[in-house]
Every structure is written in structure tokens, then in C-alpha cells.
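From the pipeline queue, job 12 of 40. The input is one protein chain; the requested action is below.

Action: predict structure.
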Amino acid sequence: MIEATQKTALESSGFRDMVAFYLGTNQYALDIARVRGINKLLPITEVERAPDYVKGLVNLRGQVVTVLDLNLRLGQASTSVTRDSRIIIVSSEEEGVGLLVDRLNDVVHAASDLIEAPPANLDGIQGDFFVGVYKAAESLIGILDVDELLKTSE
């Protein structure tokens, strides 16, 4: 369910800009305000004893950034790395974190009245990972909750 503060933010401007991307054939999006940058795949150094969804670390202009396999984080099969794969750097409280995605789509300028509360399950993914669902012209785009994605497993 969209919390009051999130719903107010969604509705206040009338529109919401998001970075849309694909995981497999499904489309998802992140609030553009949380995106620091988008990079082609960089050499990733694996981290021992990290959760399975932690792909590893990359050196991004002298800053060490943790990269998460977004598919694994969402409980799906691992992302297949291709030349279309991208790392979306999102901001957390302390640092940037990279999210490995299959390919980018575009920046979406979504009308707030076309954004609904997320269902309990979307594409086999728990609804807790979403802040909403955007009803685009030909598809549904799940809007991911960056804070929920970055929570560490208990």
C-alpha cells in the first residue's frame, strides 16, 4: 500500500519522472530523483560471504560501489549479463549502490492519476518492493521502492 507521504509526493506535482528499464520482458521504473547515474557494465569484483544478490564491487571514478543483481534481489532468476546490461546507480543514505538491470528503456513522464497502489504480488515479486504501478499505454510498469531494495536481509 502507498503510505501517506509517498502518495502525497506522487500526487502533488501531477506527474512523476522515472527511469524505466527491463528485467527480462517485464518493465520496472525508479524515481528519477533517486538515480545518480547510469553506466555500462564495469569490471565487477566478487565479494565473499555476501548475500547471493550482491554481484560485487565496482570502481566508479575512484568510488567503490556495491552492485546488486536486481533480479536476484527481487527473488527472480539471476540477470544474464549482455552488452545491453546497465548499472543504475541509486542513492542510499550513505553511498551510491548499483542495480544491475537487463537493459534500459527510457525516462517516463507518468501522470499521477495513472499510478495505482501496488498489488500484493507483481510478476511474481512481493508487493513490498513497489511503491506503485504505472498504467502505461501498452503495459504496466512496476515502480520500485529504492529504500526497500536496499534493506539488508534480516
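Job complete. The chain is about 10% helix and 45% strand.
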